[in-house]
Task: structure prediction
Amino acid sequence: MPDNKRPYVICHMLPSVDGRIVTRDWDLKNATREYEATAATFDADAWIIGRISMEPYAGKARVPARKNRERIAREDFVAPHDATSYAIAIDPSGKLRWTANDIDGEHVITILTESVSDDYLAFLQSRSVSYLFGGKSRIDLARVLRKLRARFGIETLLLEGGGKINGSFLAADLIDELSVLVAPVADGSIGTPALFDAKEGRGPARPLKLTGVEKLKGGVVWLRYKVKR
Ligand SMILES: NC(=O)c1ccc[n+]([C@@H]2O[C@H](COP(=O)([O-])OP(=O)(O)OC[C@H]3O[C@@H](n4cnc5c(N)ncnc54)[C@H](OP(=O)(O)O)[C@@H]3O)[C@@H](O)[C@H]2O)c1
Result:
């Protein structure tokens, strides 16, 4: 039974056959094209990724020190925007240095903890980047999802990596569906991010129900699952 207080969450990823996800050395242009094309079929309202995966999209703006030392309240900030879709980052300590408040027309929302600096909040406000607080010192993902639905009307959300954020969603049992494009590559690296990096040792091991298998261009296989509850 879908929880209509939070978005429906589809984890959409492009791993190697051995479940690795750092695509840098793979040289598989078709696979990336298929990844984008299949993502579009979900008609999602937003996508969400971890701070590390967001680094290349955010930019390298300078965060100025404020002259005014007045404390900024830890209240959610919704910047004026007319976008209807959203690019969301989980950035607990405020490391992303946004140069713009959109990615290809999708409005940026960043998820913070209350431990971020006032200078950083002032920087986000000056750049019209929206932010939501996910907790005092750690992020409560269930709370974040409820806020994304209530404040921005997000009903379908693509969770697009990396391994740490996917692992946290899996551990919190907040993934409804899994959409995996298996790239025709055996990566073989040890200790690089994998599809789900939830915890050391035994993981949450959630059972899945297979709902689709499709062969795509370039030897990519599209697997779809529902998470069993
Ligand atoms: N093949 C694919 O489909 C695909 C898709 C996406 C990404 N990737 C690759 O994945 C790699 C990055 O994966 P990754 O696992 O290292 O990083 P990640 O999941 O992108 O980001 C991890 C960081 O995000 C923040 N974060 C994530 N979940 C959090 C939570 N529940 N609570 C608090 N903070 C949280 C933390 O930031 P702080 O460190 O600031 O605390 C954490 O270190 C990159 O190489 C990227 O290219 C591949």
